[in-house]
Each structure stands twice: as C-alpha cells, then as structure tokens.
Amino acid sequence: MPTTTGEPTTTGPTATGPAAVRRPRIRAGRQLHGGRVTYAVLTLFTLGSLFPLVWTAIAASRTNGRLAQTPPPFWFGGNLFKNLQIAWTDANMGTALLNTTVVAGTVAAGTVVFSTLAGFAFAKLRFRFKNLLMLLVIGTMMVPPQLSVVPLYMLIAELSWTDRLQSVILPTLVSAFGVFFMRQYLSEALPSEVIEAARVDGASSWRVVWHVVFPAARPAMAVLGMLTFVMAWNDFFWPIIALTQNGSPTVQVALTGLGRGYIPDQSVIMAGALLGTLPLLLAFVVFGRQIVGGIMQGAVKG
Amino acid sequence: MTPVTGTASGTAATAPSAEGGAAPERRPGTRGLAAAERRRERRSRWYRRDVRWSPYAFVAPFFLFFAAFGLFPLLYTGWASLHRVELTAPTDMEWVGLRNFARLLEDEFFWNALKNTFTIGVVSTVPQLLIALGIAHLLNYKLRGSMFFRVAALTPYATSVAAATLVFVLMFGRDYGMVNWALGLAGVEPVDWQNGEWTSQIAVSTIVVWRWTGYNALIYLAAMQAVPNDLYESAALDGASRWQQFVHVTIPSLRPTILFTCVVSTIGATQLFGEPLLFNGGGGATGGADHQFQTLGLYLYEQGWVNLHLGRASAIAWTMFLILLLIGAVNWLIVRRLRKST
What we know:
The structure holds two protein chains of two kinds.
Chain A: H1 7-27, H2 36-60, H3 64-67, H4 80-90, H5 93-124, H6 130-140, H7 146-158, H8 166-169, H9 176-189, H10 192-200, H11 205-234, H12 237-242, H13 251-262, H14 266-301
Helix pairs in contact in A: 1-11, 2-14, 4-14, 5-9, 5-11, 5-13, 6-9, 9-11, 10-11, 11-14, 13-14
Chain B: H1 15-18, H2 30-80, E1 83-86, E2 89-95, H3 99-106, H4 108-139, H5 146-158, H6 161-171, H7 178-185, H8 197-225, H9 229-237, H10 242-270, H11 274-279, H12 296-306, H13 310-341
Antiparallel strand pairs in B: 1-2
Helix pairs in contact in B: 2-13, 4-8, 4-10, 5-8, 6-8, 8-10, 10-13, 12-13
C-alpha cells in the first residue's frame, strides 16, 4: 500500500485541470468580426453606462450655485476637495466607509466559506434528505427580503442591536445563491476520485475540505466573494431600517442622510455619492475581468 | 493525472485506519497487536461516524442562519400580520384576525402602490431586457477591446441604489436638470419629472434600466456563447441572413435564459424600494406628493417605520409574497406551454 499522504498529488493538477478543459466550450460561439455599426452602438451604450458616474465626479467638483444654472457643467471645476471634505465630516463618511468595509468583508468571507462547505456536501457527499434540503435551499432564493424585515427588526430591537453592525451582518451571512453556485461549480470541477483517493489515504472530512475542496474551489470562491462583496456594499433596504445616520451607518445609509437634506448642497451630495462608489469602481478597474467572468459563469449554470 | 486512485480497489474499508494524521507506532508482540487492533477498530468507527455526520456539519451553518434569520421571520411575519403591533411597543400584540388584510384592501394607497409597482415594473423591465438582448448580440461579435465594453457595461451594477438615484435626481431636475436642458435644445418644454405621474414613473424606471441592463446583457452573452457553432453554420448554409440567424437560432436557444431573466427582473421589480424612496428628495416614504411613484416596498416601509404599524406592514409583506407566488405560477405555466410547443 502506498504511504503518500495524498496532498501533493491531489491539489496540483486537478484543481486547474477541469477549468482549463472547460474554457473552450464556453468560448465556443460565433466569431464574426463586428462592423462599424457594432462599435458605434457599443460606444454609445458605454457612454450611457459611464456618463452618470463621470458626471457625479464633475458635479462634485463644482459649487452648489453652479449646479443651479443652465447649461449644466460638463467639465471639472476646482471645488472637488472642499466638497469631499464637507461630505467626509458632515455625513461621517470615514466611519461609514469603515463600517461598510467591515460589513461587506465579513459577509463576503462568511458567505464564501459556508457556501463552499454546503456546496461541497451537496455536490459530492451522500447523506439522507440531501435532495429535500437542496430543494429547500433553492426555495429560499424565492423569498423576498420584505417578508422578514418586521420580525428581524423586532429581534434586533429585543437584543438592542439597532445601530450595531451585527444587525446587518448576521442576517446576510449565508446565501442560498452561494450554496447553489458552489454546488454547480464543485460538481464539475472536483472529480469524485480525488476525494476517494484522499479518503483512502486516511484523510478525515475536514482534511478533505482543507486540502482538496478549498484548493479546487478557489476560482469560484474568489468570484463568489467579489459578487457578495458588491452586493453587501450596495445593500440598502435592510440597513436603512436597522441603522441610523447618527449611530454606525453604512455608506448607503449615510448617503441617504445627505440626500434627505440635512445638507442641501447638491455638490456635496455628489461628493458623498462619489466617495461611496469609488472603492467599488476601483475594484472594477482591477478585477473587472474576473467579475465579468464570474457573472457570466453563474449565468450559464443558473 | 491522479496515480493514487488506482489503489482504491478493495482496500477502501480498512485503509483509512492505517494512515491517520499522526503516524501510529507498530510494535510486534501479541499485546501490541491486540492494542493495534483495538486502535484500528476505534479509528474505523470514528471514520464511519465522520463520513456519516460531516455532511450535516457542512450544511448546518447555512440552515442554522437561515432558520434564525429567514424561516423564523417569515413565519413570524405571518403571525404578526394577524395582530395589531406598533413599532413603539413591538412586544404588545393584540389579536385582530384578518383585519389588517381587510384594511389593506380598502386602502386606496395600497391599490395605488400596487398599480405603480406594476407600471414601473413593466416600464423598467421590458426595455431593459430588450436592450440587453441587442447589446449581448453585439458583444458576441469578435471585437477589439471586448473586455473593456463588458466591464463598462457592468459598472452601473456596481453603483449603489443610493448613489445612482441621487445623481439621477439631479439630472432629472425641473429647472436646471441636464435632461430638461437637452430636451430644451430639441425644442421641448421643461418636464416636471418628479411631480408628474407618468414622468416620475419613467424617471424612476430609467434608474433601474441604467443599473441593470449591462448585467442582463452579460447573462445573455454567456448563454449566446454556449450556443453551438454548427447551428449558425448550417443556418448560414441554408442562406439565412444575420438577422434571420438571430431570430431563428439565437433567440430560441436563449429561451430558458430569457425566462430566467424575466423571473429575476420581475422579482426585483416587485421589491423596488431604494429608487422611489430617494427620488422623492426630502419627501420621505410617500413616493411623491400624490404618491405618484410609491411602490409596494415603499408603502410597506411607510406603514411600518413612518406610521409605526408593524402589523399592517407584515400584512403588506405577505400580500407581496402571494403576488410573487402568483407571478411564479403564471411563469411556470408559460414555461410549460413553451416546452409543449417545441
């Protein structure tokens, strides 16, 4: 009997193998070259997609007085840093950004770990009620968040969690979509033989998870993490109920405070909107390719 | 690729005990053998337990959190909807039966919100999905800088509801807004986007369309790339033009994806909340002076957290759920009908 531990042989080639094999199938499609009209329409669409964001920055660099004139400004003014400063202090943007980072980071990490565990179990392990439980997971995707806000609010009020970050973290720490996503990925990307081999070598379930499943799932975990982070960062409905602007707001709640006219200065509001959007836009510049790939991958399988 | 797999035959049941985490010491002699035997048995018992119960441990976090923050609230909302509960004293519940639902059906603002949700839903979903389909078709061509176009299409998705709505409020301003300025260049009178019934709903829908069109385009693009190439080749051989290929090959292949996006967008539209809340400027949760763009989500928020009637808010939540189920059932019927016809 061979006495290898199984770790080096199982993680290396198999983790990248299936993904590399699958790529050509997804890429396969019509490869006609786009004509001039194609480029023109796509450029127009891109302008439409980006213009409101660019204009946010333009408006944030002007004064409130200038925004109350026609024609509206189309180029940057010199007031950006002053407006950013006012938004930063008056709307508590620093705290809000920090809070949102904590919330979105925790939610993304939790969702990724828990989804991978559950997804692995649903994809590769045998246990009773498996299909029934998976059906339940899919069913929970259909339940709108409105359906639980009232009791959730009562719950956090009872626990005195209003204005505490755990009130927005805990209810979103797991996601049915994540479980579904990881199950789909792992059932293809992780050959059952590798798990069996690790078992033969005496690995416990937790060792299998740590040394086989997590390495194999890493690409999907990265994608799920990014998608969840974006979603948690932008979440609005529940945070606006659970948090206030005076307590520990997330960026979205703080922005609402600006918009509601505590500070009626439009250019400052735009500066706040810019601050709240900038981190994600930067992430898009760096990870755009992966995020796009992740959404398209999730779409084919969902 | 995995040389280890060859050894799996036959030895699977006993093998694990030989190779634990820490290397077991093996001493010759009968006492040692008996001890080793016992140890081995213990290991294999432990192993069987591990295989049997670990799956439950892996799925447990999801179900524990779901039970606490999903299932329990869901059921409790149903319970609360049968009571009079005020936000000021959430623990004082007075049984009122179905009165919350009855009052809901008598409330003109409920019907108004239902109607608005429907119209804004249609006005935002239909153009959004049509444009997305067209853009996806173009993105499916071989393009220079295709990744740039894709990332750019997705950036609105990364913009929060709050940030996006605040910008659009400014752009749709009556006196100095950019939209009215541009319309003025074309000789159109300024439009009061916030106060008109139709205009405000169009403006709110625009925000939704802006945020989600690129996202849906990428979903369609993914589905288009999974369409086998030979379908197009044989269509081309039969003399089909590009447009005919799009209509007769692309669209039918995309049918499941299109239905999927329809369902997701419909669910999203029923829950519309942030856009109408913030489009109102400082006006709060009424959805405009005449409730002209108040959606069901906003109406729920107004009843629960402005008027402090949590019981009635719960009734609205359950009504929304029933409406969603109804939409789901209709969708399912359509899917079945479509499957039969193909």
